Amino acid sequence: MDSPDRDTRTTGTPVGRRVILGLIGLGGLGIVAGPAAQDGLSKLLAPAQVRDPTGLLALLPLGNNFRFYSVVGSVREKSATDYRLSVGGEVATPAEYTMAQLAQLPQTAFTQTFHCVTGWTVPDVAWSGVRLSTLLDRADPKRTATAVRFRSFDGTYTESLPMDKARGDDVIVALRMLDAPVTHDHGGPVRMYVGGQYGYKSTKWLSGIELTTQEIPGYWERRGYDLDGTIDD
Ligand SMILES: Nc1nc2c(c(=O)[nH]1)N[C@H]1C(S)=C(S)[C@@H](COP(=O)(O)O)O[C@H]1N2
Ligand SMILES: [Mo]
């Protein structure tokens, strides 16, 4: 259980150079020993494969400060060929998409700062994928559909958005992130990215989109997070 609630807030905490060098030297953080080149280290750490129990790794200048989050212990990997995304609920035309079908739809690309509600941010993250509104239109929503619910193939995580937020230009079913296909740790092969909303709104390992008659609180919302994840800045 890696609860953002318990995530140490490190922003602004002074950490001496000795501490950081000490951390790099530690074997206990799950960093696989490999090519010692700076490039190699950065590649190992960048996809946030390290769970960062101390929260200090986020201070290391590695170019990608994402932290790995999952509410379940491990998630079975899905290849691009195995992947399916269902769209259903209050719609006239339910559908199931393969990765190839999603890739053939118009893609939207943009760059935005990623904000986790616990305080860490990643500036200028490049995203691309299919606008959620494109998939909603194709499903032909019924008049009763006022919200959208997201499911994850981790079997546990859920999220939701009211229809007006769901139709935002920067709300995408993301196929690419950080100029590459979305990695497994980041919720690949397909995850949500909800622009303008805290990270918890962006469901990783996306498996289902369901139109609903009311907004259904998601995993973290049942544990106290705001239903409205709008970033207030
Ligand atoms: N399935 C799933 N999606 C999730 C989460 C999760 O634990 N499980 N965590 C959320 C939170 S709180 C954040 S900040 C981001 C983190 O994305 P990352 O793991 O790529 O850094 O994913 C969001 N989506
Ligand atoms: Mo988060």
From TrEMBL:
Q: Which organism is it from?
A: Williamsia herbipolensis
Q: What is this protein called?
A: Molybdopterin-dependent oxidoreductase
Q: Which Pfam families match?
A: Oxidored_molyb (PF00174)
InterPro entries in UniProt: OxRdtase_Mopterin-bd_dom, OxRdtase_Mopterin-bd_sf, TAT_signal
Q: Where is the Oxidoreductase molybdopterin-binding domain?
A: 75-220
